[in-house]
Amino acid sequence: MSEIAQHRIETAHVRRSPRYAIFIVVGAALGILAALVLTFAFGDGDATSSSTNVTYSASQVFGFLCLVCIPAGIAVGAVVALLLDRRFSRRTRAVRIDHERVDVSFPDEA
Question: What pLDDT, on the 0 to 100 scale, is given for residue 104?
């Protein structure tokens, strides 16, 4: 058995970065919460449209508001993550990495 070792020191740049999926999920959850608050803040239940004279239940109003508030919440969460990523990119630091590679070769047993 023979070993061949290669040893070198490299430099790498390390920085923190936000997890985008978490910010997007939190933004969607805040969008649902905003839709829920808006559903019950401006009415006590059923609402009648003035242009079509159709009565919408509270769950239908909540669904319509979710169609607007969830994408808005996702967009806000993504923008916050991008801004944090931009801010963290200024705090990049260089570290030294000790890189070692060992190749082991076994003799043929015949």
Answer: 83
Find out whether 27 and 74 touch, Cβ atoms under 8 Å: yes
* 4-8: Cβ within 8 A, 24+ apart: 4/102, 4/103, 4/105, 5/100, 5/101, 5/102, 5/103, 6/100, 6/101, 6/102, 6/103, 7/98, 7/99, 7/100, 8/99
Low-confidence ranges of the chain (pLDDT < 70): 1-2, 43-46, 109-110
The model's pTM is 0.69
Write down the H helix ranges in the chain. Answer: 20-41, 58-89
